[in-house]
Amino acid sequence: MKIAVLVALVAPVLAVPRGKHLVELSLPGEQNYNPNQSLYPQRALRVIGSFQSGFTEETFRVEAKRQCQAEPACSTVIGYLQEHSEVVDGSKYPVWFAWLIGGARATAADFHHANGTSHSFIYTINE
């Protein structure tokens, strides 16, 4: 029984790929960025979404980075708070979104300001 508990505790640690280092891409001005067409939809791997009440900004940022690190093809993750979302049950409440993006390292040219979003963050691979 002790061995089973030890394996259960160690397994999640081993599931995170080694060697991928994500660094924050700091962009100027208001932090209300969305991905440009250079990233979405062509390079989008998947999206993560949660009602604002499910995460703080920091805990959602940590989860988004963790998911990108766990996805071998992920090279960039952009997250933001959407004021309203028709995607998540037609919500009239704020929703956190994070896009996992594959391919080459993203640059500032891959993002644009978007009305209705705030608290954006971007992490990309350090090449």
UniProtKB/TrEMBL annotation:
Alphabetic keyword roster: Signal
Domain of life: Eukaryota
Signal peptide: 1-15
Official protein name in the record: Uncharacterized protein
